[in-house]
Q: What sequence folds into this?
């Protein structure tokens, strides 16, 4: 009976508290417990992982937000779910109905340090390809780069795998980096690194104007050469050939270097008899206008040369190698003395400001034609600086000037005149005609290509005005068959042929197709292709030889992409397609690696591995559109 009375009393107390709002868990919670979560202040979560925590205290209902896409959050009642994204970090904010807030710092990572299956040092042969290495740990996405693409290139088929291809002998460093900036570095040695050597003796003698050629070998196989005195001797490397040229009588040291730390010195003596007397192309007495800087050449004697002025307030002079420059400072007279290393001198009497001077001139022709929005740059000389340059119609042709030249840019179709004046009022006029940009020219994709005898290459025609007509100048090398806006070239014999495409208006474009000897080994056809940066079409290649299935890699995932999965083998050659990369186009003016010369090319290496580990490469050259910095987007 006593137990029943106690139980009844306890139930009565609980009912009374509930009626007074003291039961907790409702919007009217007055428990005084602060908002909290079971998550720590800082958490680490893997990509795709879901972590669940409890929320309590404060005043329900609860909401949660994330400061970035690195993690996503969801609240269901008092349960918080945090899901990891691809990588990075975020701040998760939990807020109750009264505005109280709790913050959690979330970092997306595997919880494992960044790693790669590659050893710390990798050796690859020239033209050879390493094993396929995997990347893990750290925080995705991963980026693989090389310190020197001339030595070794890298290719990725997915962000978790990469290969290394040897391009030329030497050493490079491959760096694997995750989105949190963690890095793993791999030392790469390509080929054998023997001691650098040259067929030139330690001491050589060359006559003035003569040139001797020597061979360079060993070391890492990208060579460079410098001369300690280019006024006496110059040095140039082309492949494995070192050419030393005698400029003037004297001595110099030629230093040959490879792409790593190898170097050797060659002592060069130029001329053995009496040297040509010291001379300069400047007249013994000449007139220079104030603020002008005429240039002349120094020769003979014994280099190096030096120069001085008897009156630097009137005229100054500088010398660079064999180039002499005079600078008119103020009206008056002075003497410029040229001296060689043997102490021989030549004196030039200079008058500044009076007498006959060089007339104002520009390197621009009298009439200039520009296709909008291109620009052209020209020099100004003679007369009396400073110069002013103006355009009669800036809506047609705008102009910007420097101390010694100007650039004119075509803005819209029409005519304008560029007027150049010096400080004494002399003037030169250049007539400018600006035309609209031409229609899209007829184009062939890919461009110049190389394949092996027996291969069939496919080309697509676009631009211009269809229909198109195809002409082949050497049918003994390739049989060309046209179907609509495409044509194929069946390679028959070793050699080259030129295929010309005509549109309906007579506009043409020409591609060179080269056939090399066929081989049973693994290869990619075409071996070399050229693609304009304006093109966004896929490029088809064919794999021959080897043992399938195959895997494909590219040295640049930004401007290109290759199949991520294994490529099945077929009886008549296995095709795979190179598409656009993560950038979505092939434009190099807005972010390709390295600096691309106007009208130049950027090379991407495409690598294929077969199931036995054999490798083959093809080069896709992306050609700049020659628009002078105008993006192709």
A:
């Amino acid at each position: 009976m006593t137990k029943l009375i106690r139980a009844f009393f306890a139930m009565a107390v609980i009912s009374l508290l509930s009626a007074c709002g003291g039961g907790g868990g409702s919007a009217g919670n007055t428990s005084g417990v602060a908002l909290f979560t079971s998550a720590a202040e800082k958490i680490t979560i893997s990509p795709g992982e879901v972590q669940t925590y409890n929320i309590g205290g404060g005043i329900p209902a609860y909401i949660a937000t994330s400061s970035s896409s690195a993690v996503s959050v969801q609240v269901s009642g008092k349960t918080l779910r945090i899901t990891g994204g691809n990588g990075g970090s975020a701040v998760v904010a939990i807020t109750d109905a009264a505005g109280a807030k709790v913050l959690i710092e979330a970092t997306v990572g595997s919880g494992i340090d960044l790693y790669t299956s590659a050893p710390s040092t990798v050796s690859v042969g020239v033209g050879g390809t390493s094993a396929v290495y995997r990347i893990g740990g750290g925080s995705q996405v991963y980026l693989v780069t090389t310190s020197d693409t001339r030595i070794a290139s890298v290719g990725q088929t997915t962000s978790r795998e990469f290969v290394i291809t040897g391009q030329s002998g030497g050493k490079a460093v491959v760096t694997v980096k995750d989105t949190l900036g963690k890095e793993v570095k791999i030392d790469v040695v390509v080929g054998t690194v023997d001691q650098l050597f040259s067929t030139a003796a330690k001491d050589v003698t060359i006559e003035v104007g003569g040139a001797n050629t020597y061979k360079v070998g060993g070391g890492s196989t990208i060579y460079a050469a410098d001369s300690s005195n280019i006024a006496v001797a110059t040095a140039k490397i082309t492949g494995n050939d070192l050419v030393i040229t005698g400029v003037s009588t004297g001595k110099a040291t030629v230093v040959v270097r490879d792409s790593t730390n190898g170097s050797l010195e060659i002592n060069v003596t130029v001329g053995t008899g009496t040297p040509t007397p010291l001379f300069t192309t400047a007249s013994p007495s000449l007139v220079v206008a104030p603020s002008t800087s005429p240039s002349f050449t120094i020769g003979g004697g014994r280099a190096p040369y030096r120069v001085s002025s008897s009156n630097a307030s009137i005229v100054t002079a500088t010398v660079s190698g064999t180039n002499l420059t005079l600078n008119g400072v103020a009206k008056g007279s002075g003497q410029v003395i040229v001296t060689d290393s043997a102490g021989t001198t030549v004196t030039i009497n200079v008058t500044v400001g009076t007498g006959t001077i060089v007339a104002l001139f520009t390197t621009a022709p009298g009439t200039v034609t520009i296709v909008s929005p291109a620009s052209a740059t020209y020099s100004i000389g003679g007369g009396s600086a400073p110069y002013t340059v103006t355009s009669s119609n800036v809506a047609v042709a705008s102009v910007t000037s420097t101390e010694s030249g100007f650039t004119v840019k075509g803005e819209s179709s029409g005519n304008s005149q560029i007027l150049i004046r010096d400080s004494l009022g002399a003037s030169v006029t250049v007539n400018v005609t600006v035309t609209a940009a031409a229609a899209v020219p007829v184009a062939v994709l890919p461009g110049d290509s190389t394949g092996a005898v027996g291969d069939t290459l496919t080309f697509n025609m676009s631009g211009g005005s269809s229909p198109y007509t195809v002409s082949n100048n050497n049918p003994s090398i390739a049989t060309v068959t046209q179907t609509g806006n495409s044509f194929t070239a069946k390679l028959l014999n070793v050699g080259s042929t030129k295929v010309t495409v005509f549109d309906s208006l007579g506009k043409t474009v020409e591609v060179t197709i080269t056939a090399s000897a066929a081989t049973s080994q693994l290869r990619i056809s075409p071996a070399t292709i050229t693609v304009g940066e304006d093109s966004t079409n896929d490029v088809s290649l064919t794999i021959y030889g080897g043992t399938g299935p195959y895997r494909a890699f590219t040295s640049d995932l930004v401007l290109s992409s290759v199949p991520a999965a294994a490529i099945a083998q077929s009886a008549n050659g296995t095709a795979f397609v190179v598409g656009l990369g993560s950038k979505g186009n092939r434009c190099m003016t807005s972010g390709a690696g390295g600096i691309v010369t106007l009208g130049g090319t950027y090379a991407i290496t495409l690598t294929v591995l077969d199931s036995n580990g054999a490798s083959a490469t093809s080069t896709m050259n992306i050609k700049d559109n020659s628009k002078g910095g105008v993006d192709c987007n």
